[in-house]
Specification:
By secondary structure, the chain is an alpha+beta fold. 41% of the residues lie in helices and 20% in strands. It has a domain at 2-46 and 68-205 and 433-444: Ribosomal Protein S5, domain 2 (2-Layer Sandwich). It starts with a helix and ends with a strand. The structure holds alpha-D-galactopyranose.
Length: 445
């Protein structure tokens, strides 16, 4: 156990002591459920995104940061090709399935789909069924990734599962291929997201954000760069406590608006496949070719197909012009943020974060009154560089860059202000920028 504490200190720094207690509970739980013997401990972190929202599936730019809050998966391989899963949180009831290259999905919302997806995708990639395992998941806050809070708990779960399957299959993964596999595994669940969450969960470096260009090169590789977080500031996360249902449908509707934009712009620019392709075009020229609002059915009538997008009804209003404008301007903001970080110009970074929030709120329409209250309250504190919602939107979290010396005042003020304005309780915590996913240790229970 002393050895484990050393490993945890490398991952969590000063938080290792509390983590040790969490790991012990999980290890005990594993022994009680599956019996004594060796157990592999895998982990995958959640994330916040500094800037670059809803750009990844448009082949754009993102700048996520891993949290030190993570999903733990304790696992012991089985010889019969079956996967059995339990969870320390009792609302996730135990699940089991058999590994194959065509694993039937459990009903929507079933947590085992986050294991079924990676098991199927890795089996297909390797051409042979991966080994199953007995698994126990630990992801309850405060150490785990809060669920439905826009900090990527589902990708962390998918990545933890994928890393375990890969380990037991003896597959030595590379970042890009594994990130794509995990992203495909989430398409299995039904969300048509991009690759940001999987990349940061896999490739994060302590104390750094990860710049990712989401456009693959000819070899399928992606350009990445680790960027140190600004000295003298803390990246604070404010969880609004608002959890929205039905996010997948709204998410896919935004994807549909972007795809519609590409299809319509393609009439004059036949080569383009993603909004990224028009990043250097003049926006006012593009805008004229994009309708304010149009339905899927009306697009179909014009011969525009949007591809496979579950749960986007025919009469869904797609706000094509505003959504595309958000993506076009957001990509520029990400590049400007990198530039400002390189120059150490934190006020400029903050200004870009604020602009990104406005664009997400007004153009992409993914904010909520609660998130707007939090960003407003955050900006009232002297020296706060900027604040914006982070993640898919419709609830979840806001981030802010706060000077080291102002953290306490910030937390007190924002917490009180938020409760007065909304009657809700915000959970405010620092983003410690932890490392990426992997095998933590093999323990004996
Ligand atoms: C979700 C998706 C990501 C990304 C963000 C929005 O987290 O999984 O791929 O699209 O939303 O930036």
């Amino acid at each position: 156990m002393g050895q484990l504490l050393g490993v945890l200190a490398e991952i969590y720094g000063g938080g290792a002591g509390g983590q040790m207690a969490r790991y012990r509970v999980a290890l005990d739980g594993f022994r009680v459920r599956y019996g004594p013997g060796p157990v592999h401990i895998f982990r995958a972190p959640g994330r916040v995104n500094l800037i670059g929202e809803h750009t990844d599936y448009n082949h754009g730019y993102v700048l996520p940061v891993a949290l030190d809050r993570d999903v733990l998966l304790l696992a012991r391989p089985r010889a019969d090709g079956e996967v059995w899963l339990a969870n320390v949180e009792s609302d996730f009831t135990p699940r089991g399935f058999a590994v194959s290259d065509a694993i039937p999905a459990a009903p929507a919302g079933d947590w085992s789909n986050y294991a079924r997806g990676p098991a199927q995708e890795l089996t297909r990639l390797l051409g042979t069924p991966v080994a199953g395992f007995d698994g126990l998941v630990s992801s309850a806050p405060p150490y785990g990734v809060p669920r439905g809070a826009g900090v990527s708990s589902s990708s962390a779960l998918t990545v933890a599962m994928a890393v375990a399957f890969a380990h037991f299959a003896g597959w030595r993964w590379q970042g890009a291929e594994m990130a794509r596999l995990c992203s495909d595994a989430e398409w299995y669940v039904g969300t048509r997201g991009g690759i940001m969450d999987q990349f940061i969960a896999l490739l994060a470096e302590r104390g750094h954000a990860l710049f990712l260009d989401c456009r693959p090169d000819a070899d399928g590789d992606f350009r990445t760069r680790s960027i140190p977080l600004p000295a003298g500031y803390r990246l604070l996360v404010m969880d609004s406590g608002v959890r929205h249902s039905n996010t997948r449908n709204k998410f896919n509707q935004r994807v549909a608006a972007c795809r519609a934009g590409v299809a319509l712009l393609r009439r004059e620019r036949p080569g383009i496949t993603h909004l990224r392709d028009v990043e250097n075009a003049d926006w006012s020229a593009l805008e004229e070719q994009l309708p304010e609002e149009v339905s899927v059915a009306s697009l179909r009538g014009q011969g525009v197909a949007l591809g496979d997008l579950p749960n986007v009804p025919d009469d869904a209003p797609l706000r094509v012009r505003a959504c595309c404008r958000h993506v076009w301007t957001e990509n520029r903001r990400v590049l400007a943020t990198i530039d400002a970080l390189d120059r150490g110009d934190i006020p400029r970074v903050g200004q870009l974060l604020n602009e990104a929030h406005t664009s997400a709120r007004d153009d992409y329409r993914i904010s909520t009154p609660e998130l707007d209250v939090l960003t407003g309250a955050a900006r009232q504190i002297d020296g706060v560089a900027g604040a914006r919602l982070t993640g898919a939107g419709w609830g979840g979290c806001v981030i802010a860059l706060v000077p080291d010396g102002q953290v306490e005042e910030f937390s007190t003020h924002v917490g009180r202000f938020y409760t007065r304005a909304t009657g809700r309780q915000a959970t405010i915590f620092p983003c410690q920028a932890g490392p990426g996913a992997g095998l933590v240790a093999v323990a004996e229970v």
